[in-house]
Every structure is written in C-alpha cells, then in structure tokens.
Amino acid sequence: MGVVKSRGKLVLFADADGASKFSDFERLEKIVKVNCSSLEDDKIVVCGSRRHLEKDSIAKRSLFRTFLMHGFHFLVWFLCVKGVRDTQCGFKLLTRPAALQTFSNLHVLRWAFDVDLLYIAQYLKIPIFEVDINWHECEGSKITFGSYIQMGLDLLSIRLHYLFGAWKIDANYRPENI
How far apart are the C-alpha atoms of 66 and 60, rounded to whole Å? Predict the structure, then answer.
C-alpha cells in the first residue's frame, strides 16, 4: 500500500478522477499546523468535505440517487463513524504517524475504505477535522447501484467484524515499526 511506504511528514491522498483541486491542500495543511505541535509525533486526520455543496448537488441528482446518498450517510453514522459529515470525499491529509497507524490497521480496500480508516482513527482517538473544499463532478466518476449495495455491505462488515473481535486495531502500533 502506497501510504505505508510514504516518507513525508504529511500524507495526502486524492481520488484519481481529479474532482478535487490540489490548491485546496493549503486549507487542509492549515488545520494540521494549527492543531499539531509536532509533525513527527502528533496524529491528525483532515478530511476534505463537499457537504457545503450538497443542496446544489441534490438538485442535479435523481430522487433515487439522493435517497441512496442519504441512506448511506445514515448507515455510516449509525454503524461506524460519528461526527464526520462527508466520509467519502477522496481528499484527505494525515500526519505521517496517523497515516501509518490507520492504514496499517485497515481491512476494507473497496469504496468504503474511507469509513474503515475514519472508524480506526476514532477508535484510536486521533482528532479528525473537516474542511470545505472545491470539488466538481467528473464525467465517468459515477458510482453504480451495485456499488451502493457493496458499500452498505462493507459498512455492516466493518461494524460486525470490529464488534465481535474478528478484526483488531493495534493501538500500540508505533511508526518506527515500519
């Protein structure tokens, strides 16, 4: 996994479709700098967020797709991650220690991996921040109905595997182990 092999003090990942702008990196970096005393030691996750665009996007979506979106957000909140409004925005910045600890514990490698990542961060009490970013819909980057079904199954899987101890989170992980 590329994140585990990263070498920088900050680790940014973004969706390959180019829907987010790298110029927003500075917005996320500012949150890290304000809330972090040591990039080498502190753990912070900053998520780009598209929630400020939600009203406009609902007007452009079908009623069915809007229903699926709200249903997914409810399931994320109910089963896995509290307090993060947009778990699926593919523009996230982590301090290296946070990136190494969360990604080394990751189990879901599909669409809902962001939820697993944030679930792990919340479990480890890593602070999570959200920052509004510029974002635009890209041609061909739509998810299918089957993807929503898979994501729902992944959410249930995350909840049940952690709840019953089938998946463990190594809270004693230290970045120097890699």
Answer: 9
